[in-house]
Amino acid sequence: MYAIFVTINVKAENVEEFGEASFGDAEGACRDEPGCFRFDINRDPEIPTRFYLYEVYRDEDAFQAHLEAPHFLAWREKVSAMFDGEFEKVVMQTVFPSESGWEAQKPGLLNW
User: Fold this and answer.
1) Bridge partners of 4?
2) According to the 3-state scheme, what is the secondary structure of 7-22?
3) Which of 65, 3, 1, 83 lies closest to 28 in space, CA to CA?
4) What CATH number is given for 2-103 in this structure?
5) What is the arithmetic mean of pLDDT over 41-58?
6) Is 53 helix (H, G, I), strand (E, B) or coil?
């Protein structure tokens, strides 16, 4: 599986709006993208303007499809001016759960 960990710093005045917009992207990815197996949004408790995204996709092609999805394009348009500096992205390959484990968890992504 193809995973990314993204660190995004947001301008203080945009923290709440960024969180709401990001929820829409995560919800759309989990609901509408068969190749998305995880989309976590976390906020740093010590630096409240810093968010961490952890996303897992079937492969890089599924991630590239995410970048063209309507919910992602809407998110990017809405939040790009909210960034405080450049974001950082780390690309990873998952080790556990197994690919079949990720597949088995997919239906549970819609239980929010």
Assistant:
1) 55, 91
2) EEEECHHHHHHHHHHH
3) 65
4) 3.30.70.100
5) 97
6) strand
